[in-house]
Amino acid sequence: MNAYDWLRNLPVANIDDACNVVEVSFSKGTRKDFFRNTTLQLFEKGDLITVEGVSGFDVGEISLTGEIVRLQMKKYGVKEENPDMKKVLRLATDRDLDQRRVNKEREPEAVIRSRAIAKQLNLNMKISQVEMQADGRKATFFYIADGRVDFRELIKVYAQEFKVKVEMRQIGARQEAGKVGGIGSCGRELCCSTWLTDFKSVNTTVARYQNLSINQTKLSGQCGRLKCCLNYELDTYLDALQGFPNDCDQIQVAKGNAYLIKKDIFKNLMWYTLPDSNKQYPLTIERVRKIKALNRQNIIPEELEPVEVVSNKPVEAEPEFVDVVGQISLRSLERADKKKRQKQKQQQQGQKPQPGQRPQQQSQRPQQSQQKQQQQGQRPDNRQGRPDQQKKGEGQRPQQQHKHKPNPNRNRQEAGKPKEQ
What we know:
Blueprint: E1 21-26, E2 31-36, E3 48-53, E4 56-64, H1 68-76, E5 88-91, H2 94-104, H3 107-120, E6 126-132, E7 138-144, H4 152-162, E8 165-170, H5 173-180, H6 204-209, H7 216-219, H8 234-241, E9 250-253, E10 256-264, E11 269-273, E12 280-284, H9 285-296, H10 331-350, H11 358-375, H12 387-395, H13 408-416
Parallel strand pairs: 7-8
Antiparallel strand pairs: 1-2, 1-4, 3-4, 3-5, 6-7, 9-10, 10-11, 11-12
Helix pairs in contact: 3-4
Protein backbone atom coordinates (compact mmCIF):
# COMPACT_ATOMS: atom_id res chain seq x y z
CA MET A 1 0.00 0.00 0.00
CA ASN A 2 1.41 3.37 -1.06
CA ALA A 3 0.27 6.00 1.48
CA TYR A 4 0.67 9.72 0.87
CA ASP A 5 2.52 11.59 3.61
CA TRP A 6 0.14 14.50 4.08
CA LEU A 7 1.73 15.34 7.47
CA ARG A 8 5.19 15.83 6.03
CA ASN A 9 5.32 19.66 5.95
CA LEU A 10 3.71 20.19 9.38
CA PRO A 11 6.12 21.56 12.00
CA VAL A 12 6.95 19.38 15.02
CA ALA A 13 6.16 21.02 18.38
CA ASN A 14 8.51 18.91 20.44
CA ILE A 15 11.45 17.02 18.97
CA ASP A 16 11.47 14.54 21.84
CA ASP A 17 7.91 13.46 21.00
CA ALA A 18 8.73 12.89 17.31
CA CYS A 19 8.23 9.41 15.92
CA ASN A 20 11.47 7.45 15.72
CA VAL A 21 9.98 4.63 13.66
CA VAL A 22 10.23 4.51 9.86
CA GLU A 23 8.43 2.35 7.32
CA VAL A 24 10.74 0.46 4.96
CA SER A 25 9.71 -1.29 1.74
CA PHE A 26 11.47 -4.28 0.18
CA SER A 27 11.35 -5.83 -3.29
CA LYS A 28 9.80 -2.80 -5.03
CA GLY A 29 7.08 -2.33 -2.44
CA THR A 30 5.79 -5.91 -2.30
CA ARG A 31 6.73 -6.19 1.40
CA LYS A 32 6.84 -3.45 4.04
CA ASP A 33 7.86 -3.41 7.69
CA PHE A 34 8.52 -0.97 10.54
CA PHE A 35 12.02 -0.32 11.99
CA ARG A 36 13.21 1.79 14.88
CA ASN A 37 15.68 4.55 14.08
CA THR A 38 18.20 4.48 16.92
CA THR A 39 20.81 6.49 15.03
CA LEU A 40 21.21 10.24 15.26
CA GLN A 41 20.75 10.63 11.52
CA LEU A 42 17.48 11.82 9.98
CA PHE A 43 16.26 9.93 6.94
CA GLU A 44 14.04 11.08 4.11
CA LYS A 45 11.65 9.19 1.90
CA GLY A 46 13.50 7.27 -0.81
CA ASP A 47 16.76 6.76 1.11
CA LEU A 48 18.34 3.30 0.89
CA ILE A 49 19.21 2.06 4.37
CA THR A 50 20.63 -1.09 5.94
CA VAL A 51 18.44 -2.70 8.61
CA GLU A 52 18.63 -5.76 10.82
CA GLY A 53 17.70 -9.04 9.20
CA VAL A 54 17.59 -12.71 10.10
CA SER A 55 21.15 -13.63 11.11
CA GLY A 56 22.44 -10.72 9.07
CA PHE A 57 21.29 -7.51 7.42
CA ASP A 58 18.91 -6.42 4.71
CA VAL A 59 18.66 -3.36 2.44
CA GLY A 60 15.40 -1.50 1.88
CA GLU A 61 13.97 1.84 0.84
CA ILE A 62 12.27 4.25 3.25
CA SER A 63 8.63 4.77 2.25
CA LEU A 64 7.28 6.83 5.18
CA THR A 65 8.72 8.94 7.99
CA GLY A 66 7.29 11.20 10.65
CA GLU A 67 3.85 11.27 12.25
CA ILE A 68 2.15 9.43 9.40
CA VAL A 69 4.03 6.29 10.51
CA ARG A 70 2.13 6.28 13.81
CA LEU A 71 -1.17 6.24 11.93
CA GLN A 72 0.04 3.34 9.82
CA MET A 73 1.16 1.42 12.90
CA LYS A 74 -2.22 2.01 14.54
CA LYS A 75 -3.93 0.71 11.42
CA TYR A 76 -1.91 -2.53 11.40
CA GLY A 77 -1.96 -2.94 15.19
CA VAL A 78 1.77 -2.48 15.78
CA LYS A 79 2.86 -0.89 19.06
CA GLU A 80 5.56 1.74 19.00
CA GLU A 81 7.06 0.51 22.27
CA ASN A 82 7.46 -3.03 21.01
CA PRO A 83 10.91 -4.26 22.21
CA ASP A 84 11.13 -6.87 19.44
CA MET A 85 11.06 -4.23 16.71
CA LYS A 86 14.19 -4.37 14.58
CA LYS A 87 16.52 -1.41 14.23
CA VAL A 88 18.02 0.70 11.47
CA LEU A 89 21.78 0.17 11.21
CA ARG A 90 23.08 2.79 8.75
CA LEU A 91 22.76 4.24 5.30
CA ALA A 92 23.37 1.61 2.66
CA THR A 93 26.97 1.59 1.43
CA ASP A 94 28.19 0.62 -2.02
CA ARG A 95 29.26 -2.76 -0.72
CA ASP A 96 25.78 -3.41 0.67
CA LEU A 97 24.16 -2.44 -2.63
CA ASP A 98 26.51 -4.65 -4.67
CA GLN A 99 25.85 -7.61 -2.38
CA ARG A 100 22.09 -7.07 -2.67
CA ARG A 101 22.30 -6.88 -6.46
CA VAL A 102 24.24 -10.16 -6.65
CA ASN A 103 21.73 -11.98 -4.43
CA LYS A 104 18.71 -10.52 -6.26
CA GLU A 105 20.02 -11.96 -9.51
CA ARG A 106 19.69 -15.44 -7.98
CA GLU A 107 15.90 -15.11 -7.49
CA PRO A 108 14.66 -16.05 -11.04
CA GLU A 109 16.81 -19.18 -11.09
CA ALA A 110 15.69 -20.06 -7.56
CA VAL A 111 12.02 -19.86 -8.60
CA ILE A 112 12.53 -22.29 -11.47
CA ARG A 113 14.59 -24.71 -9.39
CA SER A 114 12.19 -24.61 -6.41
CA ARG A 115 9.21 -25.39 -8.66
CA ALA A 116 11.01 -28.39 -10.09
CA ILE A 117 11.84 -29.72 -6.61
CA ALA A 118 8.24 -29.29 -5.44
CA LYS A 119 7.04 -31.20 -8.50
CA GLN A 120 9.47 -34.05 -7.83
CA LEU A 121 8.10 -34.38 -4.30
CA ASN A 122 4.51 -34.50 -5.68
CA LEU A 123 3.34 -31.53 -3.61
CA ASN A 124 0.15 -29.77 -4.67
CA MET A 125 1.52 -26.24 -4.46
CA LYS A 126 2.85 -23.48 -6.69
CA ILE A 127 5.93 -21.40 -5.88
CA SER A 128 4.97 -17.84 -6.77
CA GLN A 129 8.02 -15.82 -5.77
CA VAL A 130 11.36 -16.18 -4.01
CA GLU A 131 12.76 -13.22 -2.05
CA MET A 132 16.43 -13.28 -1.12
CA GLN A 133 17.82 -11.28 1.79
CA ALA A 134 20.46 -8.71 0.88
CA ASP A 135 23.29 -10.68 2.52
CA GLY A 136 22.11 -13.98 0.97
CA ARG A 137 21.62 -15.83 4.28
CA LYS A 138 17.84 -16.17 4.14
CA ALA A 139 15.27 -16.86 1.41
CA THR A 140 11.49 -16.49 1.68
CA PHE A 141 9.43 -18.76 -0.58
CA PHE A 142 5.88 -17.50 -1.34
CA TYR A 143 3.57 -20.32 -2.47
CA ILE A 144 -0.09 -20.86 -3.36
CA ALA A 145 -2.02 -23.96 -2.30
CA ASP A 146 -5.67 -24.89 -1.95
CA GLY A 147 -5.19 -26.63 1.38
CA ARG A 148 -2.54 -27.48 3.91
CA VAL A 149 0.76 -28.77 2.56
CA ASP A 150 3.28 -30.87 4.49
CA PHE A 151 6.55 -29.26 3.33
CA ARG A 152 8.85 -30.46 6.09
CA GLU A 153 10.85 -32.54 3.65
CA LEU A 154 10.72 -29.70 1.12
CA ILE A 155 12.39 -27.26 3.55
CA LYS A 156 15.30 -29.66 4.05
CA VAL A 157 15.81 -30.02 0.32
CA TYR A 158 15.64 -26.25 -0.20
CA ALA A 159 18.15 -25.57 2.57
CA GLN A 160 20.56 -28.15 1.13
CA GLU A 161 20.08 -26.89 -2.43
CA PHE A 162 20.32 -23.10 -1.92
CA LYS A 163 22.51 -23.05 1.25
CA VAL A 164 20.22 -20.51 2.98
CA LYS A 165 17.75 -20.33 5.83
CA VAL A 166 14.31 -21.14 4.36
CA GLU A 167 11.02 -19.50 5.27
CA MET A 168 7.75 -20.66 3.67
CA ARG A 169 4.86 -18.18 3.44
CA GLN A 170 1.45 -19.00 1.99
CA ILE A 171 -0.41 -16.34 -0.01
CA GLY A 172 -3.66 -16.22 -1.97
CA ALA A 173 -4.36 -15.68 -5.64
CA ARG A 174 -5.23 -12.01 -5.07
CA GLN A 175 -1.96 -11.40 -3.23
CA GLU A 176 -0.04 -13.08 -6.03
CA ALA A 177 -1.68 -10.76 -8.57
CA GLY A 178 -0.68 -7.83 -6.35
CA LYS A 179 2.95 -8.98 -6.33
CA VAL A 180 3.03 -9.51 -10.10
CA GLY A 181 1.14 -6.28 -10.88
CA GLY A 182 -0.52 -5.22 -14.10
CA ILE A 183 -3.22 -3.07 -15.70
CA GLY A 184 -6.89 -3.76 -15.05
CA SER A 185 -9.83 -3.57 -17.46
CA CYS A 186 -10.46 0.00 -16.25
CA GLY A 187 -7.10 1.09 -17.68
CA ARG A 188 -5.50 1.79 -14.30
CA GLU A 189 -2.97 -0.14 -12.22
CA LEU A 190 -4.35 -3.01 -10.17
CA CYS A 191 -5.85 -2.03 -6.82
CA CYS A 192 -4.21 -4.99 -5.07
CA SER A 193 -0.75 -3.80 -6.16
CA THR A 194 -1.23 -0.12 -5.23
CA TRP A 195 -3.46 0.51 -2.20
CA LEU A 196 -5.78 -2.44 -1.45
CA THR A 197 -4.61 -4.56 1.48
CA ASP A 198 -7.84 -6.01 2.93
CA PHE A 199 -9.21 -8.61 0.52
CA LYS A 200 -12.90 -9.26 1.15
CA SER A 201 -14.83 -12.18 -0.30
CA VAL A 202 -16.78 -11.50 -3.50
CA ASN A 203 -19.61 -13.74 -4.74
CA THR A 204 -22.10 -13.69 -7.59
CA THR A 205 -24.90 -12.19 -5.48
CA VAL A 206 -22.98 -8.92 -5.59
CA ALA A 207 -23.34 -8.91 -9.38
CA ARG A 208 -27.04 -9.76 -9.15
CA TYR A 209 -27.72 -6.81 -6.87
CA GLN A 210 -26.13 -4.55 -9.48
CA ASN A 211 -28.08 -6.13 -12.39
CA LEU A 212 -24.91 -7.39 -14.05
CA SER A 213 -24.86 -10.36 -16.39
CA ILE A 214 -23.13 -13.39 -14.87
CA ASN A 215 -20.22 -13.57 -17.30
CA GLN A 216 -17.10 -15.03 -15.73
CA THR A 217 -14.75 -13.59 -18.35
CA LYS A 218 -15.92 -10.04 -17.68
CA LEU A 219 -16.37 -10.30 -13.93
CA SER A 220 -13.05 -12.05 -13.22
CA GLY A 221 -9.78 -10.24 -12.65
CA GLN A 222 -6.20 -11.20 -13.44
CA CYS A 223 -6.10 -13.43 -10.36
CA GLY A 224 -8.92 -15.60 -11.73
CA ARG A 225 -11.31 -14.54 -8.94
CA LEU A 226 -14.21 -12.10 -9.04
CA LYS A 227 -13.08 -8.49 -9.20
CA CYS A 228 -12.68 -6.71 -5.88
CA CYS A 229 -14.19 -3.54 -7.37
CA LEU A 230 -17.62 -5.22 -7.41
CA ASN A 231 -17.81 -4.45 -3.68
CA TYR A 232 -17.11 -0.74 -4.12
CA GLU A 233 -20.64 0.27 -5.19
CA LEU A 234 -22.52 -2.51 -3.44
CA ASP A 235 -23.56 -0.31 -0.48
CA THR A 236 -24.98 2.32 -2.83
CA TYR A 237 -27.07 -0.28 -4.64
CA LEU A 238 -28.32 -1.76 -1.36
CA ASP A 239 -29.39 1.67 -0.11
CA ALA A 240 -31.22 2.38 -3.36
CA LEU A 241 -32.97 -1.02 -3.33
CA GLN A 242 -34.53 -0.31 0.05
CA GLY A 243 -37.16 1.86 -1.66
CA PHE A 244 -38.32 -1.07 -3.83
CA PRO A 245 -40.95 -3.57 -2.55
CA ASN A 246 -39.55 -7.01 -1.68
CA ASP A 247 -42.69 -9.16 -2.18
CA CYS A 248 -43.47 -8.11 -5.77
CA ASP A 249 -41.64 -10.77 -7.73
CA GLN A 250 -45.00 -11.91 -9.15
CA ILE A 251 -48.19 -9.93 -9.72
CA GLN A 252 -51.52 -10.93 -11.33
CA VAL A 253 -53.32 -9.17 -14.16
CA ALA A 254 -56.08 -10.17 -16.58
CA LYS A 255 -53.58 -11.56 -19.12
CA GLY A 256 -51.86 -13.79 -16.54
CA ASN A 257 -49.07 -13.67 -14.00
CA ALA A 258 -46.38 -11.03 -14.59
CA TYR A 259 -42.88 -11.93 -13.42
CA LEU A 260 -40.18 -9.49 -12.30
CA ILE A 261 -37.15 -9.32 -14.56
CA LYS A 262 -35.00 -6.52 -13.16
CA LYS A 263 -35.00 -3.37 -11.04
CA ASP A 264 -33.71 -0.07 -12.37
CA ILE A 265 -32.51 2.01 -9.44
CA PHE A 266 -31.59 4.98 -11.64
CA LYS A 267 -35.10 5.48 -13.04
CA ASN A 268 -37.01 3.79 -10.17
CA LEU A 269 -38.67 1.32 -12.52
CA MET A 270 -39.48 -2.40 -12.23
CA TRP A 271 -39.54 -4.45 -15.42
CA TYR A 272 -42.06 -7.29 -15.82
CA THR A 273 -42.83 -9.79 -18.54
CA LEU A 274 -46.00 -11.72 -19.39
CA PRO A 275 -46.11 -15.44 -20.25
CA ASP A 276 -47.69 -14.97 -23.69
CA SER A 277 -45.06 -12.48 -24.98
CA ASN A 278 -41.36 -11.73 -24.73
CA LYS A 279 -41.91 -8.01 -24.34
CA GLN A 280 -40.78 -6.32 -21.13
CA TYR A 281 -43.07 -3.78 -19.45
CA PRO A 282 -41.60 -1.03 -17.22
CA LEU A 283 -43.78 -0.13 -14.21
CA THR A 284 -43.37 2.53 -11.57
CA ILE A 285 -42.95 1.57 -7.93
CA GLU A 286 -46.32 3.13 -7.04
CA ARG A 287 -48.12 1.15 -9.75
CA VAL A 288 -46.53 -2.13 -8.61
CA ARG A 289 -47.58 -1.52 -5.01
CA LYS A 290 -51.12 -0.66 -6.12
CA ILE A 291 -51.45 -3.88 -8.18
CA LYS A 292 -50.04 -5.92 -5.29
CA ALA A 293 -52.58 -4.37 -2.91
CA LEU A 294 -55.43 -5.23 -5.32
CA ASN A 295 -54.18 -8.83 -5.59
CA ARG A 296 -54.33 -9.18 -1.83
CA GLN A 297 -57.99 -8.14 -2.02
CA ASN A 298 -58.54 -10.81 -4.75
CA ILE A 299 -58.98 -8.07 -7.35
CA ILE A 300 -57.25 -8.60 -10.69
CA PRO A 301 -56.64 -5.40 -12.74
CA GLU A 302 -57.08 -5.41 -16.48
CA GLU A 303 -53.78 -3.87 -17.60
CA LEU A 304 -50.30 -3.35 -16.26
CA GLU A 305 -50.25 0.27 -17.45
CA PRO A 306 -46.56 0.39 -18.35
CA VAL A 307 -44.62 3.63 -18.54
CA GLU A 308 -43.17 4.86 -21.80
CA VAL A 309 -39.41 5.06 -21.44
CA VAL A 310 -37.91 7.95 -23.36
CA SER A 311 -34.17 8.04 -23.88
CA ASN A 312 -32.32 11.31 -23.50
CA LYS A 313 -29.97 10.54 -26.36
CA PRO A 314 -30.71 12.45 -29.59
CA VAL A 315 -31.92 10.30 -32.42
CA GLU A 316 -29.52 10.26 -35.33
CA ALA A 317 -31.26 10.70 -38.69
CA GLU A 318 -30.19 8.18 -41.28
CA PRO A 319 -28.91 9.83 -44.46
CA GLU A 320 -31.05 9.26 -47.53
CA PHE A 321 -29.64 7.84 -50.73
CA VAL A 322 -28.87 10.49 -53.33
CA ASP A 323 -27.73 9.79 -56.88
CA VAL A 324 -24.73 12.05 -57.43
CA VAL A 325 -23.53 10.48 -60.69
CA GLY A 326 -22.48 13.26 -63.11
CA GLN A 327 -22.53 15.96 -60.48
CA ILE A 328 -18.96 15.58 -59.29
CA SER A 329 -16.31 17.40 -61.32
CA LEU A 330 -12.69 16.39 -60.95
CA ARG A 331 -11.32 19.89 -61.29
CA SER A 332 -8.05 19.02 -59.67
CA LEU A 333 -7.30 16.45 -62.38
CA GLU A 334 -8.36 18.86 -65.11
CA ARG A 335 -6.03 21.53 -63.77
CA ALA A 336 -3.15 19.06 -63.65
CA ASP A 337 -3.88 18.02 -67.24
CA LYS A 338 -3.88 21.63 -68.40
CA LYS A 339 -0.56 22.32 -66.69
CA LYS A 340 0.93 19.25 -68.34
CA ARG A 341 -0.19 20.38 -71.79
CA GLN A 342 1.20 23.85 -71.24
CA LYS A 343 4.58 22.43 -70.26
CA GLN A 344 4.65 20.27 -73.41
CA LYS A 345 3.91 23.28 -75.60
CA GLN A 346 6.62 25.32 -73.96
CA GLN A 347 9.14 22.50 -74.49
CA GLN A 348 8.18 22.21 -78.19
CA GLN A 349 8.52 25.95 -78.69
CA GLY A 350 11.92 26.01 -76.98
CA GLN A 351 13.24 23.09 -79.15
CA LYS A 352 12.34 24.56 -82.61
CA PRO A 353 15.39 24.17 -84.98
CA GLN A 354 17.09 27.17 -86.60
CA PRO A 355 17.39 27.38 -90.42
CA GLY A 356 21.08 26.38 -90.41
CA GLN A 357 20.51 23.26 -88.35
CA ARG A 358 17.85 21.58 -90.51
CA PRO A 359 20.20 19.60 -92.86
CA GLN A 360 22.10 18.27 -89.89
CA GLN A 361 18.91 16.87 -88.42
CA GLN A 362 18.00 15.29 -91.77
CA SER A 363 21.34 13.53 -91.94
CA GLN A 364 20.75 12.14 -88.45
CA ARG A 365 17.38 10.65 -89.35
CA PRO A 366 18.79 7.51 -91.07
CA GLN A 367 20.95 6.81 -88.02
CA GLN A 368 17.96 7.18 -85.70
CA SER A 369 15.84 4.86 -87.86
CA GLN A 370 18.68 2.33 -87.95
CA GLN A 371 18.97 2.38 -84.17
CA LYS A 372 15.22 1.82 -83.82
CA GLN A 373 15.40 -1.17 -86.17
CA GLN A 374 18.28 -2.68 -84.18
CA GLN A 375 16.29 -2.30 -80.97
CA GLN A 376 13.30 -4.02 -82.57
CA GLY A 377 15.43 -6.94 -83.70
CA GLN A 378 15.16 -6.16 -87.44
CA ARG A 379 18.04 -6.18 -89.96
CA PRO A 380 19.02 -2.64 -90.91
CA ASP A 381 18.78 -1.61 -94.52
CA ASN A 382 22.26 -1.19 -96.08
CA ARG A 383 20.95 1.37 -98.51
CA GLN A 384 20.23 3.76 -95.67
CA GLY A 385 23.69 3.32 -94.20
CA ARG A 386 26.89 5.09 -95.05
CA PRO A 387 28.68 4.35 -98.39
CA ASP A 388 31.80 3.05 -96.66
CA GLN A 389 29.70 0.49 -94.79
CA GLN A 390 28.18 -0.70 -98.14
CA LYS A 391 31.60 -1.23 -99.67
CA LYS A 392 32.78 -3.07 -96.65
CA GLY A 393 29.77 -5.35 -96.88
CA GLU A 394 30.38 -6.07 -100.59
CA GLY A 395 34.01 -7.02 -100.07
CA GLN A 396 33.27 -9.56 -97.39
CA ARG A 397 32.81 -13.17 -98.44
CA PRO A 398 30.47 -15.56 -96.72
CA GLN A 399 32.19 -17.63 -94.08
CA GLN A 400 30.49 -20.80 -95.23
CA GLN A 401 32.66 -20.97 -98.40
CA HIS A 402 35.86 -21.43 -96.34
CA LYS A 403 34.51 -24.13 -94.07
CA HIS A 404 34.64 -27.16 -96.43
CA LYS A 405 37.92 -27.00 -98.50
CA PRO A 406 38.97 -30.16 -100.39
CA ASN A 407 42.05 -31.98 -99.07
CA PRO A 408 44.30 -33.13 -101.99
CA ASN A 409 46.50 -35.32 -99.80
CA ARG A 410 43.48 -37.38 -98.83
CA ASN A 411 42.83 -38.41 -102.46
CA ARG A 412 46.47 -39.49 -102.94
CA GLN A 413 46.37 -41.65 -99.83
CA GLU A 414 43.23 -43.37 -100.98
CA ALA A 415 44.72 -44.05 -104.41
CA GLY A 416 47.81 -45.71 -102.95
CA LYS A 417 45.87 -48.18 -100.80
CA PRO A 418 45.05 -51.64 -102.34
CA LYS A 419 41.42 -52.44 -102.73
CA GLU A 420 40.09 -55.13 -100.50
CA GLN A 421 38.37 -58.00 -102.16
